[in-house]
Write a sequence for this structure.
């Protein structure tokens, strides 16, 4: 089957508006938006179904169907409006301009660790490595960052820089292990990173029982707070701090590395076709180790926005929260590209921040956010499904057929 | 059973792979389907076997129209197929492979005794020696092919389709297969024999149908001359001879001495190989696929570490050097499996043009890519090598096989070489591009570069070579001149040195 | 791309093939640890208490710590030398060798661990706990085997366990009948399996991505319902029900093993059956042959009339059901109501057990038992008061798995085409 799949013969050019329309319909942007819409619909069903008011009205459905729809509307609209207000603008409960924008700043602050870890994971995905070890990498980054933060006492700028470096090195070390094992022995990085995630928790758990890590006088495994000198300066009384700018800088750095450097070229080549990369004289093991180490370092940086902020300045085994796992969905949603990851990080940061408001002011618990996130990613990963649901044309068909012919 | 295809059409998008093909296979006949690589033979047979759905036309068995929506139905109707790439599960035994899909059972479990007996019975009919309990992955190719035949016969196939069955066989094994085909015919099985090798067709076929560009271009009898068949097949007079002058006498550039490669399981893949290549000379390495050619090229490129021996290029030892260092030493490499080793399909043409040069001036400075230089380079090379692509930013996967190969060749020839190593340089490439590629290789030789060509196509070998080395089971059977007869080369490919007619192990 | 690789027949002797000294070296290192760490680190007059439940009565006795540990070490050294000789002679080491070595190593370790302690080592309890903690791992690993052999990577075991636990608890509570809960568990797992099949087989989404995301989905979904419906109507949805323990007459009286193996609830008995049936059916039945064909060489399966994608979908759902059944362990088998994220990463360990077990049900069970043992050991030893931090015991299974996949325990081949969509 080595038919010549000659590039499709030039068809007559369709009118310009159709081209624009086709671009939107075929492009991933529309699929992404529709995926979010679908997820919100599924979330709405869950929210409505679990609401006691709706359940009550449902039993009266045949007498007063209007009541049921009213109740559903109230519940869903209430939850989503709280979600929105918790994530973007606080419309109902603001007295000052600060109040109005406060949720947005919260969302941005929450998105910072997601962006860091997502950038790391995205790099791995593009190198064909399924690194799901961000969780452990954040923990190790946090361990070193936190230790340097409270154990040393240095002038402000230097202390901060050292803690950031510590977070990077800690995460990088935890990323290096699966990298070197994969490179040297072919050990499956998926398994190794899963195992290292759990190992990291127990390692930190043990460290926090040791005198050098444990806060004196505390019964709980918790470290002393990080010094003031090691904290990111915040902007204008908002929760946004230097960490977010650092994340944006990291995004740019990753873009440059992947698209404009020889190392990135090798990494992409190894990810797309390791055999060809090897034949072209690139070192697949070296690229693997580099990617995993850098990815681990980036994930480690996610710990800085936790420990070096005002939110939570003491090291616990919960330092990574679920950022490492959420970052997988962020990297997937952002299609492993830095700009996409920043956008996806902001979206999921917003969902997370808004989720707390929703939980506080309505009867809908934050767990529904997990459902929204995972459904969004599932749909985005399967564009044909989204198109089938919305009955959109299939732009892939022609390409696929040609692949068969090749 | 009489099998008839009427106006069968199969399209892939706008590409018509089979255009209204008519074919009649009479009972007890060997019907050869002759055509170039990519003429649409395999597609037709996959339609017949129910693997592809036809876009038009009819299949009739004994005059009754049938419709297959999957291979299961085709098999039930008595059609069996031996695929070019064997459809055997490597980790299953012979018996398990043969009964897969129609397993005899006793209770919940497979009746392995019955399965073994089935293999033995069919083997006995044709004098095969096949151990039903052997793991397929441990069997030599020739035997695997017999397992495929047994598999088809175990389902009472009345029409057996053999898709390029001789591609992986030595001339001797090919002869044995011809014998088996005749036996099958005698026992009443019809055979559709797909091939592009004229000699084989003449030897066994009863009827010949020639296909070109997805259309039937003619039928012939085996008595037709090779020239007639060839011109039918290719559509014009073929002259694979490349115009080239005799090699000039020059000093030796590459010396390979006692190169030996033993893999981790103890198999000897290369066995004390010794040869040299002079400047401005093409050494062609011929042989049936899988006799160590791949391993030899990989060892030369540093992709595999030889167990013993040395490779020196202009006096520099290459063994122990990394692939990177060998490329930098001036060795250009066209790998045999282009899409696997030679290119990154999702990368642009421009990126593929610098795939193995990216770490160097002028394409990068201090770790940063020189985007403008890369684009400029690509534009020049696309023009020089007549690569048909929409743009240099187009992904490599959008190019045809011939154009992809031109990109690979352009990349390798765009720098000063001290050795060119091209493996199967024209595999899966259209006829027009073959000539172009051959001319470029000869031009490189004329510049004084030593060239090694590895090819399983004797036509290519004889067209290009200044000297021919024949490989068999990891050894060089001999190195002979370009005017050696095909029959002698054939014997050598089976491990027999015609000058010394004693078979080598 | 050519899928055909041609192996050359062996020609000369194997004299040139390098000898792999990995195993003898590992044995050597372990024997040294055993000698120095367990044998020589304890005084000659210290005793280790051991307690065994024979099924009728409890027997307590003590052994001299150093002597026992040294005897074990000597056997280890002997086995190590044997392995060395076999390797030098290029012979295969028998399966019993690593098993025997491991047994001696563990005995030496345990004897050293309880040396001089007031408490004695509860052998029966240790074994019971091991089996207990292994149940969800074994079900999960079986699910992994089924899915991977048909060519689908199942990272969603975690989600399937959790879904099974959830539905078993809810149905058990609604009907006040743990048996119905047990029946419901595989249904929930199968649903997750069906989603995996939908995305992985129908839409060609990367199997690992689907698996990871499904785990998040199930966690979110069950946690959400737990926080809302289950918490609001505890009396309806969160009534714990428990499967009765059914001692098997006769068998449960076998000394030592009886109380461990045959005094269990029905879920454990189903597990025994599932392991045996799978081990046989996977390799000997029509179902097993066909599904493995789909995982090894789907195109070949297609050409003999096997519907590859349908087979994959069916078996992925079956795998999900098996894992879902294992989820019942967390709730109805233990008499617990559902709790948020109660599978706590067991699904991932099950996946590791399957890989460590070399994709065979038999091996997976052994690996799952090993993990269960390590998990249980930290409980057991903390009771005895041993100074090894519990975190390190908890880390052990993960570290063992890392060593295993890094090839230190020997390489096995996964199904050739796992994770590859079939676009036939």
């Amino acid at each position: 089957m080595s038919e010549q799949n000659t590039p499709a013969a030039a068809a007559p050019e369709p009118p310009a508006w159709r081209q624009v329309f086709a671009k939107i319909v075929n492009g991933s942007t529309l699929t992404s938006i529709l995926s979010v819409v679908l997820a919100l619909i599924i979330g709405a069903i869950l929210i409505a179904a679990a609401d006691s008011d709706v359940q009550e009205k449902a039993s009266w459905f045949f007498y007063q169907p209007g009541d049921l729809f009213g109740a559903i509307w109230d519940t869903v609209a209430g939850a989503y409006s709280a979600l929105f207000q918790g994530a973007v603008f606080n419309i109902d409960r603001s007295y000052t301009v600060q109040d109005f924008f406060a949720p947005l700043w919260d969302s941005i602050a929450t998105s910072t660790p997601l962006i860091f870890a997502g950038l790391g994971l995205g790099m791995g995905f593009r190198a064909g490595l399924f690194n799901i070890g961000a969780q452990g990498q954040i923990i190790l980054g946090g361990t070193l960052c936190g230790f340097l933060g409270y154990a040393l006492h240095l002038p402000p700028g230097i202390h901060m820089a050292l803690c950031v470096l510590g977070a990077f090195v800690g995460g990088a070390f935890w990323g290096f292990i699966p990298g070197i094992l994969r490179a040297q022995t072919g050990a499956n990085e998926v398994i190794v990173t899963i195992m290292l995630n759990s190992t990291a928790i127990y390692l930190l758990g043990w460290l926090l029982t040791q005198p050098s890590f444990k806060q004196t006088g505390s019964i709980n495994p918790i470290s002393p707070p990080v010094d003031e000198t090691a904290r990111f300066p915040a902007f204008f009384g908002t929760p946004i701090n230097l960490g977010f700018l650092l994340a944006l800088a990291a995004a740019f750095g990753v873009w440059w590395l992947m698209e404009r450097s020889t190392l990135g070229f090798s990494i992409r080549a190894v990810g797309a076709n390791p055999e060809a990369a090897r034949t072209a004289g690139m070192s697949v093991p070296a690229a693997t180790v580099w990617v995993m180490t850098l990815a681990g370092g980036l994930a480690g940086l996610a710990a800085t926005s936790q420990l070096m902020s005002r939110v939570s300045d003491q090291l616990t085994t919960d330092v990574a929260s679920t950022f490492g796992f959420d970052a997988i969905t962020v990297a997937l949603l952002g299609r492993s590209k830095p700009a996409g990851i920043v956008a996806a990080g902001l979206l999921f940061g917003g969902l997370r921040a808004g989720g707390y408001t929703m939980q506080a002011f309505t009867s809908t618990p934050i767990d529904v956010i997990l459902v929204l996130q995972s459904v969004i990613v599932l749909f985005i990963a399967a564009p044909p499904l989204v198109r089938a649901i919305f009955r959109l044309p299939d732009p892939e068909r022609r390409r696929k057929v040609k692949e068969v012919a090749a | 059973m009489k099998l008839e295809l009427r106006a069968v059409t199969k399209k892939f998008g706008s590409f018509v792979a089979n255009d209204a093909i008519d074919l009649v296979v009479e009972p007890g006949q060997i019907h050869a389907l002759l055509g170039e690589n990519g003429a649409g033979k395999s597609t037709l047979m996959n339609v017949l076997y129910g693997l592809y759905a036809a876009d038009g036309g009819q299949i009739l068995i004994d005059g009754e129209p049938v419709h297959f929506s999957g291979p299961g139905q085709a098999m039930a109707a008595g059609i069996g197929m031996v695929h070019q790439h064997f459809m055997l599960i490597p980790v299953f035994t012979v018996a398990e492979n043969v009964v897969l899909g129609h397993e005899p059972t006793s209770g919940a479990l497979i009746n392995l005794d019955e399965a073994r007996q089935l293999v033995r019975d069919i083997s006995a009919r044709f004098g095969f020696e096949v151990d039903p309990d052997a793991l397929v992955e441990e069997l030599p190719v020739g035997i695997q092919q017999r397992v495929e035949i047994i598999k088809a016969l175990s389902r009472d196939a009345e029409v057996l389709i053999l898709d390029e069955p001789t591609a992986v066989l030595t001339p001797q094994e090919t002869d044995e297969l011809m014998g088996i085909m005749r036996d099958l015919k005698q026992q009443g099985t019809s055979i559709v024999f797909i091939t592009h090798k004229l000699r084989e067709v003449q030897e066994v076929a009863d009827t010949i149908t020639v296909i070109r560009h997805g259309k039937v271009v003619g039928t012939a009898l085996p008595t037709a001359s090779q020239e007639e068949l060839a011109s039918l097949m290719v559509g014009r007079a073929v002259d694979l001879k490349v115009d080239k002058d005799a090699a000039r006498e020059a000093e030796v550039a590459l010396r390979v001495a006692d190169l030996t490669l033993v893999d981790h399981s103890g198999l000897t893949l290369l066995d004390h190989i010794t040869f040299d290549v002079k400047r401005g000379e093409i050494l062609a390495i011929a042989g049936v696929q899988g006799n160590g050619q791949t391993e030899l090229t990989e060892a030369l490129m540093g992709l595999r570490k030889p167990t013993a021996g040395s490779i020196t290029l202009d006096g520099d030892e290459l063994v122990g050097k990394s692939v990177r260092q060998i490329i930098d030493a001036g060795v250009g490499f066209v790998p045999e499996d282009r899409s696997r080793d030679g290119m990154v399909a999702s990368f642009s043409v421009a990126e593929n043009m610098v795939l193995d040069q990216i770490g160097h001036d002028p394409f990068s400075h201090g770790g940063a890519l020189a985007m403008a230089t890369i684009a400029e380079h690509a534009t020049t090379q696309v023009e020089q090598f007549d690569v048909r692509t929409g743009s240099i930013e187009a992904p490599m996967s959008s190019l045809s096989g011939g154009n992809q190969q031109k990109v690979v060749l352009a990349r390798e020839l765009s720098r000063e070489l001290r050795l060119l190593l091209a493996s199967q340089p024209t595999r899966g490439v259209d006829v027009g591009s073959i000539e172009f590629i051959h001319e470029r290789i000869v031009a490189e030789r004329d510049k004084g570069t030593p060239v090694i060509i590895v090819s399983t196509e004797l036509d290519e070998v004889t067209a290009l070579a200044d000297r021919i080395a024949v490989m068999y089971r990891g050894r060089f059977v001999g190195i002979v001149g370009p005017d050696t007869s095909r029959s002698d080369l054939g014997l050598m490919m089976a491990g027999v040195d015609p000058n010394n007619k004693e078979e080598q192990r | 791309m050519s899928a055909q690789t041609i192996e050359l027949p062996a020609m000369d002797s194997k004299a040139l093939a390098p000898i792999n000294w990995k195993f003898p070296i590992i044995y050597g290192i372990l024997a040294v640890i055993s000698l120095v760490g367990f044998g020589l680190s304890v005084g000659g007059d210290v005793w280790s208490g051991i307690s065994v439940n024979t099924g009728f009565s409890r027997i307590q006795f003590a052994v001299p710590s150093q002597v026992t540990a040294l005897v074990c070490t000597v056997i280890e050294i002997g086995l190590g030398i044997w392995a060395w000789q076999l390797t030098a002679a290029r012979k295969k080491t028998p399966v019993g060798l690593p098993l025997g070595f491991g047994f001696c190593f563990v005995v030496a370790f345990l004897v050293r661990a309880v040396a001089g302690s007031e408490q004695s080592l509860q052998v029966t309890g240790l074994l019971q706990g091991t089996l207990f903690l292994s149940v969800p791992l074994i079900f999960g690993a079986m699910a992994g085997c089924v899915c991977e052999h048909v060519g689908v990577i199942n990272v969603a075991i975690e989600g399937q366990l959790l879904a099974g636990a959830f539905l078993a608890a809810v149905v058990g509570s609604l009907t006040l009948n743990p048996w119905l809960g047990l029946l419901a568990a595989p249904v929930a797992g199968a649903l997750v399996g069906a989603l995996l099949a939908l995305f992985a087989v129908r839409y060609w989404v990367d199997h690992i991505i689907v698996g990871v995301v499904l785990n998040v989905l199930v966690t979110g979904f069950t946690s959400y319902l737990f926080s809302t419906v289950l918490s609001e109507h505890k009396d309806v949805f969160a009534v714990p029900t428990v499967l009765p323990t059914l001692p098997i007459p006769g068998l449960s009286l076998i000394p030592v093993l009886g109380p461990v193996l045959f005094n269990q609830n029905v879920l454990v008995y189903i597990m025994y059956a599932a392991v045996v049936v799978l081990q046989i059916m996977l390799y000997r039945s029509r179902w097993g042959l066909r599904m493995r064909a789909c995982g090894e060489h789907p195109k070949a399966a297609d050409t003999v009339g096997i519907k590859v994608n349908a087979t994959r979908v069916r078996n992925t759902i079956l795998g999900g059901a098996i894992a879902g059944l294992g989820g019942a362990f967390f709730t109805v088998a233990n008499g617990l109501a559902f709790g948020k994220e109660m599978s706590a990463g067991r699904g991932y360990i099950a996946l590791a057990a399957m890989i460590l077990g070399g994709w065979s049900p038999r091996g997976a069970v052994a690996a799952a038992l090993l993990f269960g043992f390590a998990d249980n050991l930290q409980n057991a030893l903390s009771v005895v008061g041993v100074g090894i931090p519990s975190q390190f015991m908890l880390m052990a299974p993960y570290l063992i798995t890392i060593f295993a996949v890094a090839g230190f325990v020997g390489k096995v081949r996964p199904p050739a085409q796992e994770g590859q969509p079939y676009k036939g």
Observations:
- The first strand of chain B starts at residue 3 and ends at 12.
- Chain B has 17 helices and 24 strands.
